[in-house]
Specification:
three-stranded mixed β-sheet, Serine Threonine Protein Phosphatase 5, Tetratricopeptide repeat, mainly alpha
Amino acid sequence: MNTISSYVILSQIFILSKNPEVRLVSRNFYEISKIVSVRANFLIHKFGKDKVLDIRYNEFVNCYDLLEDQELVLNILQRNPNPDQEISQNLFQVSVRRRWIKVLEYLLDLFVDVSKEKFQAVIQQRNHQTEIQRPTPKQKEIRNYIIPTIDINTNRGICFRLALSYKQTDIVKKLLNAYKIIPKFKFDVSKTEILFHQKVSMEYFSSNNICDLFEEGGLELLKLFFINGLKSAHIRGADVHADQDWALGMASKSGHLGVVKYLIENGANIKAREDFALGIACRNCHFEIVKYLVENGADLKAENHWNQIFEEKNNHIEIINYLLERGLDFYNRSSSISEYAIGKGRTDIVKLLVENGADVHANNDFALRWASENGHSGLVKCLVENGADVHANNDQALRSASMSGHLEVVKYLVDSGSNVDAQDGYALRWASANGHFEVVKYLVGNGTNIHEYFNQALESAIWNGHLEVVKYLVENGANIHSNNKEALQSACKNGHLNVVKYLAEKSVDINRINEFDFRFCEAKGHFGVVKYLRNLKNNGKSENGLNLFKSVFNLNYFSNKDQDPK
């Protein structure tokens, strides 16, 4: 395209042809056909300005594929200053469905000059719909009567209901603010009567549809609803009390304090659904809303929402403290509340609960046992200081802490009087079995009997290959020869070469091995053990030949977890 004149000529040829196939004649025609303004003129010339945007069943009748483009539709509209009102109304609804905010804004800004009779007919229609009589204008010479091209409440507010159902917050706001639009006519204001957009009718939808919008639009959106008559509308329950004040509950859930305040100031029932708003605010940890609701009369003992407070991972300490100050009775739920708090490691909540009467002994001191097993030293200290029994369930707190390797908890419990030898030295046996060397050292240093339950602490450490623990126990008096056959068998069977070497160095009897046992060990992949033992044999360090695994299949040890840590 070399010159402006050639562009104009080709554009006119394409437009006047009324034939879309012309775009395929040449590249220049094709490029021109893609220009929005050219397409708009082409469609207007082909179908007529009053028919090009004709709509039936919410779809364009002509060239519906081209008219999927909002910019093209807007361009066509701008070329027709006085579009047909019916077509404009249909297009307005389509714009809501397609979220065409630009087209919607353009149509809302359109006003038309009508006859006096038409003007009065529209007024009467509005009066009938709203039952509010419009004041009669003062007598003056009127030359122009201006009304909106679009009726935003037509067909029982279909456009607004669509915007709500599609959760189109931006369009909802446009419609709620439409009453503010001032027409851009250059008429003599003193001789012009103007009918502005109506406020959106609040009569044709359920308030359930607006609750989700509050999360995005917040207080300002809610105020727009009230300005448009939400509070005074009662048809189909679209008032502030609709569905048992569901709007207040959703605002409380979402944490919109401003919305909550505004709703209550406008008459929302704070006690609706047995104080649902307070319960849901607690569950979602919105402390300021909880405080506001309680200060305005919410019932602390309403419904059983309070257990939910402790099921979440959020920080609820401020809410709990506030509710306690206002008289919330936790006593009847102390067991479950403590368990939830302990499970989350919340020392602050546990302290608050026990100081306000929670039973630390509930479920056989479950709280202390659970805290010990999970290594929450702060919680353990808090519970013990508030009377928890360290000996509950045969000193299970210490046993669990030792088994899990929580040295700090073990130290505190022992210092608080726990029995280190409870249940046949269970704590040492399981600490040894799991290789918790520091815990083993501490327990032995505090007098636990390393010979309990047939030296099982040592056997458990050997079975699981914890060489450091094995050495420590032997150095502190554990009898490595009390059952040396089974001890060495277990080390070999599990492939713990370092332990096998240590036992051999300590003169454990290795006289019971044969070729069958070697093959068994090889089948398990413990080639290092086999090589080491064969070398011992070849070096003549076994007088009677190696026969280590003769009864390897007869091992019956460690079959019971509670008594047998293996």
